[in-house]
Specification:
CATH superfamily of the largest domain: Nucleotide-binding domain of ferredoxin-NADP reductase (FNR) module
Order of helices and strands: EEEEEHEEHEHEEHEHEEEHEHEE
Bound molecules: flavin-adenine dinucleotide, FE2/S2 (inorganic) cluster
Radius of gyration: 17 Å
Strand order of the largest sheet: 10-9-8-7-11-12-15
Length: 258
């Protein structure tokens, strides 16, 4: 489905993150993303941070020029939406550990809501650079998740990386599965912890996207197209790929990163 719709609501979630809500009737599931386009600017892939009903939403972190322009959109502005695309988290209820870094919480929040509704017991390890940047901390608490916070500067919760919190939790409590989204270097550490403690990990991965239909190769990650084979991948598909947690490719296919 594709449509041009007005933004109905704009919420400043943190000093650098804004949620835009819009009416979009297409069915969507947690983990999926849309391509969103602001007239006069580029189109970006954005995970759906609200997937239920007609009122969908995306939560945009300020990164470069396009995301900054998207953040400045006011209610009433028209945006182009196509999708949703990609696969979803498997919502089998169990003892879930969800590890979110920065804006990664955007895709994890609707997944946590859906799996809690199916009876799962969810613990969220939520990390940010500083307390005001803890995205969806209160939303996770309201849905009934236990939330363990970490901040790089020690302004709230554990003083240090969220990967340390995740590793401690995995070493001290039984979990059936881990879902993670955030910087790839963070997800790589979560995958290593999961593998040490024998718990399967699924990662939501980002790549440059153009068609979102599996046709242009822009989002290639090893043998996979992130737009159709992902964005949610079991860790065992990612760990053999040198580029997971290593490098990615820009719009012209050039290697970026180490
Ligand atoms: C599946 C998926 C889900 C995502 N979900 C979110 C989310 O929920 N919240 C969030 O804040 N970000 C999300 N992103 C990242 C987002 O799409 C952009 O990469 C990020 O906002 C940076 O774009 P920019 O224009 O601000 O950066 P810049 O570095 O300024 O971008 C440089 C140029 O590249 C283009 N560009 C940048 N990234 C992409 C991309 N991934 N695909 C195509 N063109 C791109 C820009 O439009 C611009 O023309 C997601 C990415 C993917 C692949
Ligand atoms: S964005 Fe074109 S193949 Fe994935």
């Amino acid at each position: 489905m594709r449509s041009v719709v007005p933004v109905t609501e704009r919420v400043e979630e943190t000093p650098t993150t804004v949620t835009l809500r819009f009416d979009y009737a297409a069915a969507a599931a947690p983990g999926q993303f849309v391509m969103i386009w602001v007239p006069g600017d580029d189109e970006l892939p954005m995970s759906l941070s609200y997937t239920e009903g007609r009122s969908k939403g995306v939560t945009v972190k300020e990164m470069g020029s396009t995301s900054r322009n998207m953040q400045s959109i006011r209610p009433g502005t028209l945006v182009g939406i196509r999708g949703p695309y990609g696969n979803t988290f498997s919502l089998d209820p169990g003892r879930m550990l969800i590890v979110g870094g920065g804006s990664g919480a955007a895709v994890l929040a609707p997944a946590a809501e859906a799996v809690i509704a199916r009876g799962a017991k969810v613990t969220v390890a939520l990390g940010a650079t500083r307390a005001p940047e803890l995205l969806f901390r209160d939303r996770f608490r309201r849905m009934g998740a236990r939330v363990e916070v970490s901040t790089d500067d020690g302004s709230e919760g554990y003083h240090g990386f969220v990967t340390h919190v995740a590793d401690r939790l995995l070493g001290s409590e039984p979990f059936d599965a881990v879902w993670t989204c955030g910087p790839e270097v963070m997800m790589r550490k979560v995958v290593d912890s999961g593998s040490r403690h024998g718990v399967p990990v699924h990662c939501s991965v980002e790549r440059h996207m153009k068609c979102a239909l599996g046709m242009c190769d822009a989002c290639a990650l090893g043998p996979y197209h992130v737009c159709v084979d992902g964005p949610v991948f079991p860790a065992e598909r990612l760990t053999p790929l040198g580029e997971f947690g290593g490098f990615h490719r820009d719009s012209s296919g050039r290697r970026v990163g180490p």
